[in-house]
Design goal:
The protein is mostly helical. The protein is built from twelve helices and no strands.
Length: 304
């Protein structure tokens, strides 16, 4: 890969980190007056309409029936299950907490690789997994609204774990499709199948939806989620996945909690407690250790 391609690839990943980091804050704002399923459906349908206009200009992707099935299955995990869990989790806990749990996605990739692909995990990987579990436990217990029942922040954190697992499946499948199709084609079809996935659930919101109650603040947040956190961020991330391995692209997810914490502090007035800050630091340390393991493994395979 040339130096110019490297700049484009890593620039795309930095942009993705910023857009996805602020998406937790924007989702929290949008949920103030827009129901969950309405928000997710609108986000991906508007994004698909944008890509549909591009497809009309450049032509529809020549996907095989098998690839359509792969894309649909990929969309079930991400944006489907992922955004359902993430959005529901944000109803019960803070944006900063959710983003820190989401930061464990690279660790989930390592665990799934060991289970599904039978890849061996070395000592660093085991330490990273252990630290991440400790960090998340401290992060959840340190929430001022924490209680031992399945309510409040604990409920939100457990729901967000579903997003972590589904995102791990998405990263693996997106890397496979990226070898044959452009990021524009993958992102466009991903948005289409994502909107299709949430269309039936939209009818659950319609009977109680009050259009006049939707605030301008929530509409601006929806616009941000569509244009930047969906169209631009997915395009950038899928572009990066066509250039570098999924394990290297996943490392940039580590920066999302930092962006979210700053955005939540400025826009929402949220702050982590000192105990939560310690838990968050453990989570980020665990992710760093796990990524160090991935880089060592890649270096060994390159030299062998």
């Amino acid at each position: 890969m040339s130096e110019q391609e490297q700049l484009k690839t890593y620039g795309a990943l930095v942009a993705t980190t910023v857009f996805w980091g602020l998406s937790f804050v924007a989702t929290k704002v949008a949920l103030e007056s827009i129901p969950t399923f309405t928000l997710i459906f609108a986000r991906f349908m508007l994004a698909f309409l944008f890509f549909a206009a591009i497809m009309i200009r450049y032509g529809l992707p020549s996907l095989t029936p098998k690839d359509h099935v792969k894309l649909f299955l990929m969309a079930i995990f991400h944006p489907g299950i992922y955004f359902l869990c993430e959005t529901q989790g944000l109803l019960y806990t803070s944006a900063a907490t959710v983003s820190l749990i989401i930061a464990t996605i690279p660790i989930a990739v390592v665990i799934l690789s060991a289970i599904i692909l039978k890849e061996k995990t070395n000592r660093l990987g085991i330490i990273g997994i252990f630290l991440s579990l400790m960090g998340i436990t401290i992060l959840v217990i340190g929430d001022p609204d924490f209680n031992r029942g399945l309510e409040g922040s604990l409920k939100g954190s457990l729901i967000v774990f579903g997003a972590v697992i589904s995102a791990a499946f998405y990263i693996v499948s997106a890397r496979d499709l990226g070898r044959r199709y452009s990021s524009r084609e993958i992102t466009g079809m991903q948005c289409f199948y994502g909107a299709l996935f949430f269309a039936p659930a939209l009818f659950l919101d319609i009977p109680t939806l009050s259009w006049t109650a939707i605030s301008l603040r929530s509409l601006v947040a929806l616009l941000y989620l569509t244009v930047f956190a969906t169209v631009t961020a997915f395009f950038c991330y899928n572009f990066a996945l066509t250039k570098i391995p999924a394990s290297r692209a996943a490392i940039f997810i580590n920066g999302i909690p930092v962006v979210t914490a700053l955005g939540a502090w400025v826009i929402l007035g949220e702050r982590l407690t000192p105990l939560q800050g310690a838990g968050g630091a453990l989570v980020l340390a665990a992710v760093f250790i796990t990524n160090l393991m991935s880089r060592k493994r890649a270096a060994l395979s390159h030299t062998s």
